[in-house]
């Protein structure tokens, strides 16, 4: 376990955070970003495929979350074709892939918690 540090401020992409955890939560926090990253672990997906995997997310929210993940460098967006209908594919970048151990740890923790009786 990492011992908390008194002064652990970090900066990332020009933004200052009081500690590393606040930086991570800013980048992947919210209801859907972690889920999107989880589904992209197994390879590239189109918008419609992601929507099917997350039936309760609205198209507007999915679009916004994808744009934010792309802006933060977790995913890339590739457009194939120049005339409608174009094919748009989302996939993890190297930076996004570097987050996989964190997703694995969160998943393992979740299974541990779910397996416990209250």
From TrEMBL:
Boundaries of every HTH hxlR-type domain copy: 19-118
SUPFAM superfamilies, sorted: Winged helix' DNA-binding domain
Residue intervals passing through the bilayer: none
Molecular-function GO terms, alphabetical: DNA binding
InterPro entries from the UniProt entry: HTH_HxlR (IPR002577), WH-like_DNA-bd_sf (IPR036388), WH_DNA-bd_sf (IPR036390)
Pfam families: HxlR
UniProt KW keywords: DNA-binding, Transcription, Transcription regulation
Protein name: Helix-turn-helix transcriptional regulator
Taxonomic lineage of the native organism: Bacteria, Pseudomonadati, Pseudomonadota, Gammaproteobacteria, Moraxellales
């Amino acid at each position: 376990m990492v011992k908390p540090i008194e002064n652990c401020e970090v900066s990332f992409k020009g933004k200052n955070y009081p500690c590393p955890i606040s930086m991570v939560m800013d980048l992947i926090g919210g209801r859907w970003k972690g889920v999107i990253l989880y589904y992209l672990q197994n390879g590239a997906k189109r918008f419609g495929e992601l929507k099917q995997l997350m039936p309760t997310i609205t198209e507007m929210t999915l679009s916004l979350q994808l744009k934010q993940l792309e802006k933060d460098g977790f995913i890339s967006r590739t457009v194939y074709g120049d005339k409608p209908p174009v094919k748009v594919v989302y996939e993890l970048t190297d930076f996004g892939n570097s987050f996989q151990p964190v997703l694995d740890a969160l998943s393992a923790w979740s299974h541990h918690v779910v397996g416990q009786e209250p």
